[in-house]
Amino acid sequence: MFQGASSLSLDGKGRLSMPTRHRDVLGATANNQLTITKHPHGCLMIFPRPEWEKFRERLAALPMDAQWWKRIFLGNAMDMELDGTGRVLISPELRSAAQIEKETMLLGMGNHFELWDKAKYEAKEAEAMQGAMPDVFRDFSF
User: Fold this and answer.
1) pTM
2) Residue 133 gets which letter from DSSP?
3) What CATH fold (topology level) applies to the domain 2-129?
């Protein structure tokens, strides 16, 4: 399970250096193989390959009225691999789709990561914090 936030910068070639705390897990569970695709909230999802394969199977089983969402997730998915120094290339197409230029936030979301443009993430987080909590948290204890 991945969790936690990391403020990271892409290098000049668009590569992201995966935080050290995640590298061993990705090596052991996914042989350093990742799949990156669009998220409907405007960020990117980064899956270890075995988790992507589970997600892909669920997507493939969706009915025809979800065809556009299948295109968004499957049609934009790119298989990548961590290099020897723990970096992964974020393709120009996916960087453009998420409006990511250099400064990013990588969030561990359980079985996958979200990669956000840092300024965009901070703005959306501030907006969410100003709003009311969803009803699902009504009986949640902190």
Assistant:
1) 0.93
2) P
3) Chemotaxis protein chec (3.40.1550)
